[in-house]
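Dear colleague,

Following up on yesterday's call, I've attached the two folding results inline so they're easy to grep. Please treat them as preliminary; we haven't cross-checked anything against experimental data yet. The first protein's sequence and structure tokens come first.
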Amino acid sequence: MGTILLEGMEFFAFHGCFKEEQIIGTKFIVDIQIEVDTAVSEISDRLGDTTDYVGLYRCVKKEMEQKSHLLEHLARRIVDAVTAQFPSILAISLKIAKINPPMGGKMQQVSFKTDWKK
């Protein structure tokens, strides 16, 4: 068993409930942690025996490019897409942070975190 982490992925995207957010956009930071059986790849040293980090990144990126009103909805889409593309994943921990959200005051970020298990 092993854990693969992609941390600090930055995206400029158009997610949010306010019309302006879907027009102007903002920066998002995404962290994903997956649990997968790495026993074979630990010995074989072959990319085909593990979850490809680049493929995982591209899967997240594709979902980030599609607008959502809620971070919760976006997170569910990412989890669904990742588990469909990589069925060997046993668990996912995902955090999406919206940087400088329009909250009427100074705030660094607002985040949504979800955990999924097979």
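Below is the second protein, in the same order (sequence, then structure):
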Amino acid sequence: MKTSIFVLVASLLAASALAVMPATDQFVPALAHAGGFGDAQWRGDVWIYNPAADRPATVDIYLLLRQPNPTPTSQRITVQPGETRYLEDVIGTGLFGLTDTAGGVRVVSSSPVVVTARSYNANVTTSKGTATSGQFFGGVPAAIAVGAGDATDVIGLDQDPSGTTAGFRSNLALVETTGNAVSFAIDRVDPDGTVVGTLACDGSGTCAPLGPWEVRQLDLVLTKFSPPSGANQRLRIRVTGGSGRLIAAGSRIDNVTGDPSTVEMAGGGRAGTYVCKLERSDYESPLTLTVDQGAVTALDATVLFTDADVPACSNFQVLRLAGPLATPVAYDDAGTFNFVASNASLGATLQVNGTIAVTGALSGNATVTITGVPGCSGTKSWPLAGARLP
């Protein structure tokens, strides 16, 4: 029988692609009850679905304005098992009762819920009458926000030289997700990968850091660089300082019809503390990794080495390797890393090969080598699985 000798404090997450998924803390970065360009009347609707079959979800919805929000106002609703709540015009008559207000929302729930939203112009004139035109947003889990040392990309943005009268224009929405300030930089990248320019949002110039739970929209974002127009542009948003984290989303708008399209951020940050386990046949052994500034920086591993690993090992060995790595080990763009840690007094080395997914899951393998211990010297590898702490 497999016995767990330590309690893991994080559930394992599926290493799935970014998609609309249940979560307990998530964000919609761009909603409004306000007028806009060309007599637009912007509104935002939110749907909240409780997939649980046996329990209601208590849901707090925080209104995040386009300013720092250290103490954002909130409303609480209950979503029954299997129920979908529809909050039409959530900033206006749907929940908060405000006008001339733009920002986003944070949705915090007692159990995982699915959040979707639509931001739309309710004043679109067509041959069939006045109708709506808008874009879809899925709730973005706080767990995939990017922190210091990480970056995310928003691709496929355009800005017509005429500005807002022909072709396309693009906006960028950002939201801070932890209640702490965060500095960042935006690189504009041409289709061939050439960096056209960089906008530093760290207070050194005209662009300030994001404040606590601040929502910010950069209209005509490509015009903040030179040249002020271009097609098929990519923005890389890099977190350069502060303890906050951020989520980004783009909007590519047809200037003639006013029709917007959502451009989701590519991937998410990987910083955090990962609680993992070695998938042994007899015992599960814990391994904790600290990831910060784009690298694995610390390890805390306790490994049991027994006769199941080396048959001649009559006395089991309990090995603990803990502390900062001598040199932080950077992961590549796919989140892949590898390193070796050792303890000379124990005569033990641990090699870890892993991949950190943008969803917060970690997979790979760990290999322990014992030397100088009579009967127990040898090498054994186990699969490694784990997840980032919320």
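For the second protein, one point worth flagging: The first helix runs from residue 90 to 94.

Best wishes,
A.L.
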